[in-house]
Each structure stands twice: as structure tokens, then as C-alpha cells.
Design brief:
Elements: E1 2-7, E2 11-17, H1 24-31, E3 37-43, H2 47-60, E4 64-70, H3 79-91, E5 99-104, H4 106-118, E6 124-129, H5 132-138, E7 143-148, E8 151-158, E9 163-167, H6 176-193, H7 195-204, H8 210-227, H9 242-251, H10 258-275, H11 281-293, H12 304-311, E10 317-318, E11 321-329, E12 332-339, H13 340-348
Parallel strand pairs: 2-9, 3-4, 3-5, 5-6, 6-9
Antiparallel strand pairs: 1-2, 7-8, 10-11, 11-12
Helix pairs in contact: 1-2, 3-4, 5-6, 5-8, 6-7, 6-8, 6-10, 7-11, 9-10, 9-12, 10-11, 12-13
Length: 351
């Protein structure tokens, strides 16, 4: 089992290995020795597969367990589901001495974390991510949120977990589409800051070394988060492809999943960066080839004018400027402040 320590306002570990769900109760008890009740939050895709095993492990470790299951998908990451979770916790008399456990992918982790941040002004929570995307990205770093009608993740809070448990065996139960979806966040780290990681993924495709790749992605995210926990500067780099990607998600009413949309966003931004002389055409081509090696899309049918509207609601907007993350080379990226008047033109050069 690989252990990665995250040292921010709260210090915790990310555990990466096999067969960890069946030992999760013991692992959680070590970091929450005084908690008696665990409220497990999951969705209707994940709960039938893992809820019974997780519950058994928690009960063996001395926890009483209650559970709340909501419909899977981005469309559930909203105020309605969030309030349902809060009411469930209140009705079951969950106290600040208890804890929440997020069992699932990024949607489950985000909404459970936001509930943990706000219920009783803050309770402990643990992440048990079951998707590739959640393991390498959303479960680490303390960002929690729900979506609003205007855009993704516009209501949220920073709330660091007590522990993150990444059981690699859960990846075997993902559909091929869901696994591919997570590959977008994986290769993002290579483009941002690790050329050897990018080359490993480009050459191996989806047959990559899971423990090495997931561990390396978590280490890279740790490095960004420890330098900028509250996302005011350097941590914005982790949003490579996300400004365009979130616009694609919203325009599709979330029928296009997060990873696929981010991959499209990275392809568009890379081509636009080459067109603007920010990176070479060879760099942009390498990024496209890397995305394709993982069976990810590199473009969208939406026009620049369609994409521009939702991009203006992006949470990285500051007044009349949107901070785009652009590649200079494989393993080296930067922040490009772009005025709202120039946004559509920039995107159009990458389509």
C-alpha cells in the first residue's frame, strides 16, 4: 500500500492499494478514534456494489452505520440533493463527533464534502473514491461543491478530509467509458508538470501502471495544493482544459461527462495556444496524440460563440478577465489572463 501525506491546514494521508475497502473500517478508526457513527453517502451505481462491504468493515471497527443513496450523475450535484443530505443527517441526529464517508466518484465526493463542511458548521469526513477521476483529482485537496443553474461548482467550500482511501480494485468494476473519462484528469498532470508521466501514458495508453500513475498524480496534486490550498494562484493550474470543458458539459446538459469534456478542452486550448504562438505546433500535436492514445476526444461540435457564454460564468473569472491555463511545452504550463472580449476569438482558433 502506498501512502502519500498531504500537509495543508489539516494533515491527512491518501492510501493507494488493493483490497482496501474491506479494511476501511480499521483504517478510518485510526484517524477517527472517538467517532461512533458513520454516515455513508453514495449513489445508486456504486452502493449496490460496495455499500455492504464498506458497512461490514465499519461495523467491525465499532461504528454504527447509516446510509444515504441518491441517483447517480452530475444532474444530482445540486441544491436539492444537498439539502436532502442535510435533512437526512439532522433526522438521524448526526453530531459533530460523528463522520461522513463519501463512497463513489467525483459527484459523491463533492456533495458529501460540501455537506460535511456546512452541516453543524463542520463535521469530519472521509473520501473513498471508486472512480479513476475521483482518485487522482476530486478526492484530494479539499474542494467541495454543488452546481448552480449558471455553472459547475459555483457553491462550495474548502473542506479537507480526514483520510482518502483509494482501492485500486474498484477500477475493475468501472465501465470502459467511465475509466476513459478518468484518463483525462490523469494525462492532465503529465501535460502540466511531468513529461515522463505524459510519455508513459502516451506509450502505454490505458494499459498504464495504475499504482505508479495514480500515486504520481496524487503527488503532483499535493504539490499544487500545499503551495496554494485555497486556489488563489498556482492551484489554478489544475484547471487545464476545465474552463472550456465546463462550458461543454453545461451546453450538453451534462450528457458529455467531465473527463471527456476536459479532454476536448485541453485539445482546443492546445491548438489555440499553438495558433497564438504560446506553444509550438509540435507540442499541441503531442498533446492531441496523447489524448487519442487514451481514447479521449480532442474537439467539440459546439462553436466558439456557444462556448463563450458559459465560460463567462467560470469560477476562475476575475472581473473582466478569465484565467485560462495554457501549455508552453509538455510538462510546463502557465496562466493566461484573457479578457472576456478576447475569449471567443481565442477559442475559435483552437476549434
Amino acid at each position: 500500500m502506498k501512502k502519500i501525506k498531504i500537509s495543508v491546514s489539516k494533515e491527512y494521508e491518501v492510501l493507494i492499494g488493493n483490497k482496501l475497502i474491506d479494511n476501511s473500517g480499521e483504517l478510518i478508526r485510526k484517524v477517527c478514534p472517538k467517532s461512533s457513527l458513520a454516515a455513508v453517502i453514495s449513489d445508486d451505481n456504486v452502493a449496490p456494489i460496495y455499500m455492504e462491504r464498506l458497512t461490514k468493515s465499519l461495523e467491525t471497527a465499532g461504528f454504527s452505520v447509516i446510509s444515504f443513496v441518491f441517483p447517480h450523475g452530475e444532474n444530482s450535484k445540486n441544491a436539492g440533493t444537498y439539502v436532502e443530505i442535510l435533512n437526512f443527517l439532522a433526522e438521524n441526529r448526526v453530531t459533530r463527533a460523528d463522520l461522513l464517508v463519501a463512497l463513489g466518484g467525483g459527484v459523491v465526493g463533492d456533495i458529501t464534502g460540501f455537506a460535511a463542511a456546512t452541516y453543524l458548521r463542520g463535521v469530519k469526513f472521509v473520501q473513498v473514491p471508486t472512480s479513476l477521476l475521483a482518485m487522482v483529482d476530486s478526492s484530494v485537496g479539499g474542494k467541495t461543491a454543488i452546481d448552480l443553474k449558471a455553472g459547475k461548482n459555483l457553491a462550495g467550500a474548502f473542506c479537507q478530509p480526514e483520510l482518502v482511501i483509494c482501492d485500486l480494485d474498484t477500477l475493475d468494476t468501472l465501465s470502459p467509458a467511465f475509466f476513459t473519462d478518468g484518463c483525462a484528469e490523469v494525462i492532465k498532470y503529465g501535460i502540466l508538470a511531468d513529461k515522463p508521466l505524459f510519455e508513459h501514458l502516451s506509450s502505454r495508453g490505458q494499459d498504464f501502471d495504475r499504482e505508479y500513475v495514480i500515486g504520481r498524480c496524487v503527488e503532483l496534486k499535493r504539490d499544487y495544493v500545499t503551495q496554494d490550498e485555497f486556489d488563489t494562484g498556482l492551484r489554478m493550474m489544475l484547471n487545464l482544459g476545465h474552463t472550456v470543458g465546463h462550458a461543454i458539459e453545461k451546453l450538453s446538459s451534462y450528457r458529455i461527462s467531465h473527463g471527456y469534456a476536459v479532454a476536448m478542452g485541453m485539445g482546443i486550448v492546445s491548438r489555440a495556444s499553438a495558433a497564438k504562438g504560446i506553444c509550438t505546433s509540435a507540442c499541441a500535436a503531442s498533446i492531441e496524440d496523447g489524448l487519442k492514445a487514451l481514447d479521449l476526444p480532442v474537439n467539440t461540435a459546439y462553436s466558439a460563440s456557444e462556448l463563450a457564454g458559459p465560460m463567462l460564468s467560470d469560477k476562475k473569472r476575475a472581473g473582466g478577465t478569465v484565467n485560462l491555463i495554457v501549455p508552453y511545452d509538455i510538462g510546463r504550463c502557465g496562466i493566461l489572463p484573457t479578457s472576456v472580449d478576447e475569449l471567443e476569438d481565442f477559442v475559435s482558433t483552437g476549434l
